[in-house]
Write a structure and sequence with these properties.
- This protein has about 140 residues and is α+β, with helices and mostly antiparallel strands.
- The protein has one domain: Muramoyl-pentapeptide Carboxypeptidase, domain 2.
- The protein contains 4 helices and 7 strands.
- The protein has helices at about 45-60, 75-80, 100-115, 130-135; strands at about 1-5, 15, 40-45, 65-70, 90-95, 120, 125-130.
- The chain has a 4-stranded antiparallel beta sheet, with helices on one face.
- β1 and β2 form a beta hairpin.
- The longest helix has 14 residues, at about 45-60.
- It is globular.
- The protein binds zinc ion (ZN).
- Zinc ion binds near residues 68, 87, 92, 94 and 127.
- Zinc ion binds near residues 68, 92, 94 and 127.
Length: about 140
């Protein structure tokens, strides 16, 4: 399946297959991992957030298991996401890493993202959002 992949930082749109890399310097992340639902054709993603995820992948040497990335509006409603969720804009990822405590992952995200990031700790995943980068101006 082909997707319309939108880089939310530049607005660039590309048609890519699900198994394509989003960015060539982030070799562990493919388009399908960022797809909202199995009916979605549009995928929004942030290269900045992707680079952070690749950094975590390299640092911990474990797979980043993405449980939610970009969400279309209807899907966000169905999972009781916030009305103005960062996931709607491709600016957040929920993920876990097997064998790494949530607390430790969350701290690693904060170290990478700094003051403007939004890190949420949940029982089974970490929410890593960077919409603050876009709102500070
Ligand atoms: Zn989230």
């Amino acid at each position: 399946m082909q997707y319309m992949v939108v880089n939310v930082e530049t607005g660039e749109t590309r048609r890519l297959l699900g198994n394509s890399l989003l960015e060539k310097d982030c070799p562990n992340f493919q388009v399908y991992e960022f797809v909202s639902t199995n009916k979605s054709e549009i995928v929004l993603y942030s290269p900045t957030l992707l680079k952070y995820l690749q950094h975590l992948r390299n640092e911990f040497k474990r797979a980043v298991v993405i449980t939610s990335a970009h969400r279309e509006i209807a899907f966000n409603e169905s999972v009781d996401g916030y009305e103005d969720s960062e996931h709607l804009y491709g600016l957040a990822v929920d993920f876990r890493m097997y064998g790494i405590e949530i607390e430790r992952l969350a701290n690693a995200c904060i170290n990478l993202g700094g003051y403007y990031c939004n890190v949420g700790k949940y029982s089974n995943w970490v929410h890593f959002g960077i919409s603050g980068y876009h709102r500070r101006a």
